[in-house]
Write a structure and sequence with these properties.
The complex is a heterodimer. By secondary structure, chain A is α+β, with helices and mostly antiparallel strands. Helix content of chain A is 36%, strand content 33%. Chain A starts with 8 loop residues before the first strand and ends with a helix. Classes of the chains: A alpha+beta, B mainly beta. Chains A and B meet through β2, α1, α4, β11 and β12 of A and β4, β5, β8 and β9 of B.
């Protein structure tokens, strides 16, 4: 007997397997999630939603006399880890169609501190009349408060809701893949997932990224001004986000510690946590402010090009403009081709970039920039005749870009890149 | 040897391209003729044939299908042969990069009774992009 093969077996360019069994495993996994979500949700509905709904709809209102007071003690956990809580209780006497009934009802939340529960109990008066609601099917079940705890509902329904959503989406996906080859799925692919995952591509040029965002800004001298795609900006954003989030957490801890101090208590553990947190928070702000200063101190870089998108063997004019003040030891302009691959390594998603081709377009030394004016230089760009075109798919891409590298006299060196789109050579024949 | 232990016969898919060197230019018509040998044609339920590109290299594999056909069940008692043709697109061109590679191929996928399938892949080149190398390296 031959067991079903769950995974494909590859020999060179031949592959055998049974994708149906892979789909079965995936469908089973998601079905288990759906069943778990239904069971969990069912327990919550019957254990919490239905009783709360009955109290608000079925229970009968009545007047009751308080004939006794007491504290209900509840112990959770065992032995040394046992936790005790207290809740004030009222012994009520009330009239039902079946006759007079006496039963306990509890008011308010449980208290871990017995003295606080006792203080709440002291505010209740023996002999006074209160409004109560009793169960018509079990008259001894009585409550003193009604209403819905919407916050608790949202929290408790979150987990089964997530299980149901994740499981259902997986089942729908497994149904869509059932018995279909990857070519068939790719040929009929569509929907929201495809829109999210795939980069915007140029029409009639499969795999070539769109360049609409690169040609919507006219230049002052040449036809287009290229947008800046500086890694420095992302680094700056990262430092800024880190500083804001870290210090937000630090503020919460500090407020807690301050309230404790005002109440005459000192939480040494909290203080011990706050001190290193504060050091990191201050360092984060300092680094962020320094990066902002360095980024803005150098001055803006602008690049204009005579035409876009580019074609292999095409020659284009470039205009480089560098603002700022002070001396520049060196300023370089280069055309680069970079490959980018995104892959999973364990649970991480990593991206690797490699520059596979570079051509220097211009280089200037010992520049002296003055405020209010900018350094301008012209250069010619020739795209190689058999160059690879720009390419972008979900996990892989081939990018063309112009890179400006500067070395100011007083500040650290910087790199600013301007993305380009190069069409395939055959586009000229086809269009 | 017990008959149930006998090795299962693997199909052999022979593909003949209209260009002997398997090199095509964008917008050129790709014509392919294929023959499946080594199995009983009656065992095959469906044949899928497609022209597609996929990526190789360091990144996760991406795939784009240019042409996909799923003709009906093969005629009983006749050998498994077929042919199809399609004009190739402008892009993406075949590319041999350092961490990103783009391959074009013709895939013939056979589905057997019981859910098993067999894929045969036949690479061809689209365009004439030279192999990538690190800057400064010949």
């Amino acid at each position: 007997m031959r067991l079903p093969r769950f995974f494909a077996k590859k020999r060179g360019h031949r592959r055998t397997g049974a994708e149906v069994w892979g789909s079965v495993g995936e469908a089973l996994f998601h079905a288990v999630l759906v069943v778990g979500g239904l069971a969990f949700g069912g327990l919550l509905v019957t254990g919490m939603a239905v009783p709360e709904w009955r109290i608000n709809h079925d229970f009968v209102a009545g007047r009751a006399r308080v004939v006794g007071l007491g504290l209900a003690r509840r112990t959770t956990g065992v032995a040394a880890e046992a936790e005790v809580s207290w809740q004030p209780g009222l012994r009520l006497r009330y009239e039902t169609p079946a006759g007079e009934v006496e039963s306990w009802a509890f008011r308010g939340p449980r208290e871990p501190d017995r003295s606080r529960a006792l203080a709440r109990l002291d505010r209740e008066d023996l002999g006074r009349e209160v409004t109560c609601w009793y169960d018509p099917d079990a008259a001894r079940v009585v409550v003193l408060e009604r209403g819905y705890n919407w916050w608790m509902w949202a929290l408790t329904l979150l987990m089964p809701g997530a299980l149901l959503a994740f499981g259902s989406a997986g089942l729908i996906r497994a149904y869509g893949r059932w018995g279909k080859s990857e070519e068939r799925r790719a040929a009929t692919r569509g929907g929201l997932g495809q829109l999210v995952a795939t980069p915007v591509l140029e029409q009639d040029h499969p795999g070539v990224p769109g360049c609409d965002d690169l040609v919507n800004s006219p230049g002052t001298i040449l036809r287009f001004r290229l947008p800046l795609e500086s890694p420095e900006n992302w680094t700056l954003l990262g430092f800024g986000l880190f500083a804001v989030l870290w210090n937000a957490v630090l503020s919460l801890l500090a407020v807690n510690a301050g309230l404790d101090l005002l109440g005459g208590r000192i939480d040494w553990l909290l203080l011990a946590i706050i001190v290193p947190f504060a050091a990191v928070g201050i360092a984060g702000i300092v680094i962020f402010v320094r990066r902002v200063f360095l980024t803005t101190a150098v001055g803006p870089t602008q690049l204009e090009i005579s035409d876009h998108p580019l074609r292999p063997d095409g020659i284009y004019d470039l205009l480089l403009a560098q603002g700022g003040s002070g001396a520049f030891t060196r300023l370089e302009l280069a055309l680069e081709l970079e490959e980018q691959a995104t892959f999973r390594q364990g649970t991480d998603t990593r991206t690797e970039r490699v520059v596979v081709w570079r051509q220097e377009l211009g280089s200037w030394r010992d520049l002296q920039l003055t405020p209010g004016t900018r350094f301008e230089a012209r250069a010619a760009l020739h795209v190689p005749g058999k160059a690879m075109h720009s390419f972008a798919s979900e996990h892989n891409s081939v990018h063309w870009r112009i890179v400006v590298r500067g070395r100011p006299g007083r500040w650290p060196a910087f790199t600013r890149s301007f993305p380009l789109v190069v069409f395939p050579a055959a586009a000229e024949k086809g269009t | 040897m017990n008959p149930s232990e006998a090795p299962r016969r693997q199909p052999v898919v022979l593909v003949h391209f209209s260009m002997a060197d398997r090199h095509y230019e964008p917008l050129q018509t790709l014509a392919v003729r294929y023959t499946v040998e080594g199995i009983d044609p009656r065992d095959v339920k469906v044949v899928e044939r497609s022209v597609l590109w996929y990526t190789e290299g360091k990144g996760e594999e991406d795939l784009g299908v240019h042409r996909f056909e799923r003709p009906g069940a093969p005629a009983i008692g006749r050998p498994l042969v077929g042919e199809f043709s399609c004009p190739l697109p402008l892009s993406p061109l075949s590319y041999e990069g350092l961490i990103v590679k783009i391959r074009w191929c013709v895939r013939i996928r056979l589905f057997f009774a019981g859910g098993r399938d067999f894929v045969s892949e036949h690479i061809f080149d689209l365009g004439d992009v030279p192999v990538a190398a690190f800057p400064g390296r010949p």
